[in-house]
Every structure is written in C-alpha cells, then in structure tokens.
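Convert to structure. Protein one:
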Amino acid sequence: MDTITREITVNAARARVWDVITQAQHLGRWFGDAGAEIDLRPGGRLTLSFEGHGTSVARVERVEEPEVFSFRWARSRETEPAPGDETLVEFTLTETADGTLVRVRESGFASLTGDAAAYHRGNTEGWAVKTAELQRYLETVPA
C-alpha cells in the first residue's frame, strides 16, 4: 500500500511526451484543469490548479530529460510538501516500437499521517483518470 504504479503506451515521440509532462501550458490542461506553473529544475516549485478543488503544491526532485521527471507534492491543498504530508511522483519515459511507454509511480503513502489508506485509494483512482487524460491530450492536441 506504499506505491501506485500506472503504465500506458502512447503513440507519440518521447520528446513530445516530455514536453507535455513538464511544461506549464500542457500540465495546466491535462493534469490540472485550471492552470499550472513550474520551475523545471531540482528544488523548483510546481503548482497544479484544479477547478473547485484548489491548488496542489509540489517541489521538483529530478529532471533528466527526456527520461525521468519527478516531484514531491503535498497531500493537503495550498501547502508546501513536508514530511508526513507528501508523496513522490515519478514519470519514466521509455521509447518503444509503438511510441512511448509512460510509467507513473507514486510512493510514500506509508509515511503519511492521518488516513493514508483513503488517500492511496483516491490517488489510485486519480492516476487511472489522469493517465487516460494524458493519452487523450497527446492524441488530440497538436504538437
């Protein structure tokens, strides 16, 4: 119960997928639905805004273009990530014959305070939705 992993294969070049998961103009459309801001460097700040749900705040951990992008985000809205209230999200992109394999792994649920099981359940459902939205976005929005 410490980790969620989702994988999808998208019919898009790895460089295109990299841009869509690391640039604010894309993140704010497929991930957050009310905008995003990102300082794309380790230690940089990432915000994802959600209509009717506030803003998630994250700290960028790894930027290894075009393969790995990770961040720690706060479970609580409108707050900075902190021990006991943060999980690590890592995107890994691998070129395949069919396009790009996108692997999303969120970990750290076991170290959360409060009802970590409920948060894990909610994010398991959330990643199913968000990976489908990422795939749809890549298929419908021109490069």
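Protein two, convert as well:
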Amino acid sequence: MSKVALITGAARRIGRAIALQLHEDGYRVVLHYNTSDDEAKALVETLNAKRADSAVSYKASLLSSVAGDGVPLSQRCEAMVQFCFHTFRRLDVLVNNASAYYPTPLVETGEACQRDATAAEDIFGSNALAPFYLSRAFARRCTNAEDNKLHNRCIVNMVDAMTAQPLLNFTMYTMGKHALDGLIKSSAIELAAVHIRVNGVGPGISFLPVEMPLEEHDVYRSKIPLDKREATGEEIASAVSFLVSDKAQYVTGTTIKVDGGWSLTRA
C-alpha cells in the first residue's frame, strides 16, 4: 500500500508544488488548506484523475490560538492528523508548509496598534505552534521505532533561507521561523529514538507577487547569485522529495536552502 503524506497549505504556490511532486513520487496525499477552497478542490480532482482515490483535502485554520468555533489550535492539529489515519489508515510524511507572512513591526503590533494582537498570534501560530502541535500529534501516533524505520517516517518543516538573518519589520515572522528552526533541531534529536527523521527546507525568493511592478521583480532577481532568478516551486519541491526519500535515511536535523545563494549575500 502506498505511503501517505500530509502537506499543510497545499492548495497554492509552494505547497501545491510539493503536493504534485509527492503524488508523482507515489504518495497518497492529504491536502490541508484554509481559504483556498476552489484551488484545493481543483488540485484534488487533478490528482485523483491521475490515480484514483489518491488525494483528499482537509480544511482548517492554523492561524490564531483559538478559531471562530472556539477549538484550540492544538486540537485542530490533532484532528487533522487523526483524519489522515482515519482516511488512509496511516501517515508517513508530514510537511509543515502553511505560513502567514506580512509585516509586523514591533511597535505597531498588538492591542490598540496598527495591527492588533491577533496578527502576532496568526503569524506565530502558523509558523511555529501549528508545526509543533502537528509534529507532536504525528509522533504520538508513530511510537514503534522499527515500524517507523521500515516506513521511513519523517517530518519536513518549511523554514526560510533567511532564517539566520532578521527581516526588517517582519518581527513576528522572524520569531516564528527561528522557533521553527529550533523545532527542527530539537525534535530531530528527540524523535531519533523512535526513528522519525526531522529536516527543513529553506526557500529563498520564489513566486514573486503578480501585483508587484516588473521593475521590482528585476531588483529582487538581481540579488540572487545563481542565474539571477527566483526559485520555481518544482525546485523547492524536489528538495522535499529528496528529504522524504530512502536516499535521505541518514539525514536528520538539517535544512536544505533552495535560494540560489541569496542568503550568502546577506550573511
């Protein structure tokens, strides 16, 4: 029976590319999304047309500590992992990709500020707390080391090529990605005892906003040493594909940067 992968934020952009790649690799996939209903539905239909009953979607918010229905984030994450086991009877790979990203300047974020307190919760929740809760739920269900080794169970967290450098005015995002980097390293050591590998992929510039003027696209591209272009979704997904493959069975606690050398220019 083919393996199963859960990808958060899978309906668009990098998450979609990862879902397509892992499905091509033979995985059955659970595609988490929050607001991209049409995109998620279309992707599920596309994948199931290629291989019947190989893809399902799961809608949930990973943004704030408490959703509108009052269900805490930890319980929403537990429910998502439980859905995977209920639907496919197994889960082999968890890809924590969902991420909120927008400016949160220190003095402008919080109650009575330009951005209210939920902005901080949303960004830290999606970038750090949700990956923690999902990883915990996954590890709690997969406690047999020999079985985990046999099925090469692993977690991939999508960080940022610039995690080591602060991003001006993106305080909460920077904090979230630093926390996620810490989760990769800490959980890699802890979960090695039950043979669950934990790694990261750090994309650089990719999927430049369509509303951004073309001249600004060129400015960003000019900063990238290799080829002066942004990364494609397929290139980022290929790094994930490698880390979850049998070729990476001795790789844990590391992050692969897919940024064309961009982070080296800002060290």
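The longest strand covers residues 197-203. Residues 225 and 264 are 9 Å apart (CA to CA).
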